[in-house]
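Predict the 3D structure for this chain.
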Amino acid sequence: MKHLFVNSLAGSAGGGVTYIRNVIPRLAAIPGLRLTVALPPGIGKELSAFPNVELLEMQMPALRRFWYEQSSLPAVIRRSRADVLLSTGNFALRNSPVPQILLSRNSIYTSTDFYRDLLARHEYATWMDTRLRGVLAKRSITWADVTVAPSEAFAAELRRWTGVEVRAIHHGFDRDAFTSDPGQLPSEIQEKLRCAAGTLKLLFVSHYNYYRNFETLLRALPILRKKLSGRRIKLFLTCKLVAGENPGTYNPAAAARLVKELAVSDLVVELGSVPYHRLHRLYSSADIYVTPAYTETFAHPLVEAMASGLPVVASDLAVHREICVDTAEYFPKFSSEALAEKVAGVARSSDGPKKIAAAGLERSRQFSWERHAEEIMRLSDDLIEPKTSQALARQPRRL
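Done. Predicted structure below.
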């Protein structure tokens, strides 16, 4: 039986949690595979039903976690007698005791826009911290036996950054699982949606952070209000522009001030975090999905929006075009005017949104977590095979 050790200690929020909750069950369904998964507390209860999965739950701060991974985790992997290590959190083990697959999925380390943004905000400590993490992320790609990126566009960026070959394996999506929960949204969110009845509902699904470029979206609102004069608009955010209300250390104060300065408080609805299993209800309540992100590696909400039948308006990134191809409308990533024009165009069109939504729904079906897990296992088999061949070669021949 093959044994895969999955290091997901960094998967505490956002895409990391999405990856764990979707990939581990698919890997667990592969015959002849045993899994040991290191992960933060709280996620394991979703994975405890699989008899071939051993969960190692542990909680620690980021800096302590990196030190633990480099100093102590190799011994844990060695004791588990795993054949291959899958590191899912951007950083590889310097001295992995087994062949290692690294999943690199954080584009801020390679984004000049992000570093420029931090300096403009006078976030010098975060700028230095990101630079240092970027050095480790770059080194990690050279430490791993194979590095995997969730899109070809980001894989190409990593190749340019490191000079090392990087494989692209799309993340997946399961529409049936995504829409399976029959429950309703929390009552306070339902009330906010009810109060917005009859408005053009724009949706942006993201915790607050700088690289999702909230400010460009907020600046588009007064422009859009003029372009759609006479039509009411609401922008729904799955975060709150209040310090301490979002994962991470990003400060939403500037965005909150911008809402007041632009006099668009009546257009912005801050929902806060929405339970993932109920998120499909929110998509189905919206009219247009919009994302102004200036850097991205895959963008699961785009696939979720397409699968929910929403027309998409997205910043013109290579990653966004790879995921949505011709099923979305695109605008220059820092142009609020162009963003507003694209949204207004979709809103004014009589049958355009339906055509875009139908094409997006079909496109969403191209992403599969089963296929992703199978590709990861093929890589694992390729790494195990040379070791097996060497072991057989060392065995004495029998006459």
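The chain is about 45% helix and 15% strand.
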